[in-house]
Structure formats: C-alpha cells, structure tokens
Design goal:
The structure is a single chain. The protein has helices at about 10-30, 30-35, 45-65, 65-75, 80-90, 90-100, 105-115, 125-135. With about 140 residues, it is mainly α. It is globular, with a radius of gyration of 17 Å.
Length: about 140
C-alpha cells in the first residue's frame, strides 16, 4: 500500500472522488454516527475502557453493514479498482493495508494537526492528556 506521501496530486484527487460516496454512506449510518460521536466515559470507566467498549459494540456492525464501502476506500487508497484490489488481496492483505494506513505518519498528521493547536491547553498530566485526546477522537 502506498503511503499518502507517495500519492501524486492527480492520484489524490481521483482517490477523493472515489471515496466520497462510501465515506458518506458510513457517515450517514446511525451506528457510525454513534461510534464517531464524542462521549464521556461511564462512571468508573477510563478513556481506554470506553474506547474498547465502543469499538466492541459498534465496529462489528459497521464492518458488516459497510463491507463494500470499506473495500472501495481501501482499493482507492491502493490506486486500484475494486476488482483489482479484491483479486490481489486476501483477508490478511486487507488487514495489513489497514494497519499500514493506521501507521502512516502523514495520515496521523491529518488527525493530529488540530491537536497541536491545543497543546497549550494540556494539564501537564500524561494520563489525563491521553484520556482527553481519546475523548476528543471518540
């Protein structure tokens, strides 16, 4: 899988065009909205426990309901058609691509650039700041 930094501008625009509809399908889904809506931990629950609870309850439903959307997104990010992607990847190939995407520093930068603007708001406590960051994402 290509890193975001390896994708040309023209390829990037094609990717955006290809993934807008599947992303909107996911975003419009009520389960997805619940999953991506910010939530505070329940009483006695820390941010990591809350994240795991939310993943456990929502992610399987999202994957099952949006399997094709996810494949379209991953194919586009690999600069392949859906058929090419399906033929070239088995389940482990998909898992590796998702892990590779999650570890892409450029992608992480897209999500953390807003966080760097809020550094002055940090409490000084590593565990509190980590939980606050998880809460902002979830």
């Amino acid at each position: 899988m290509k890193k975001l930094s390896e994708i040309t501008m023209e390829q990037g625009l094609d990717i955006v065009a290809d993934i807008l509809a599947p992303i909107m399908n996911i975003v419009e889904d009520e389960t997805a909205r619940d999953f991506f809506t910010k939530e505070k931990p329940q009483e006695g629950e820390n941010a990591i426990q809350m994240a795991l609870r939310r993943i456990k309850s929502s992610l399987p439903v999202l994957i099952k309901k949006h399997k094709e959307d996810l494949i379209v997104i991953m194919a586009a990010l690999n600069t392949q058609t859906v058929d090419e992607y399906k033929q070239s990847k088995g389940f482990m190939g998909l898992v590796k691509d998702v892990v590779s995407l999650a570890n892409d520093e450029d992608l992480q930068g897209l999500f953390t650039s807003a966080e760097s603007e809020n550094i002055s708001e940090s409490s000084g406590s590593a565990s509190e700041n980590t939980e606050d960051a998880v809460l902002r994402v979830l």
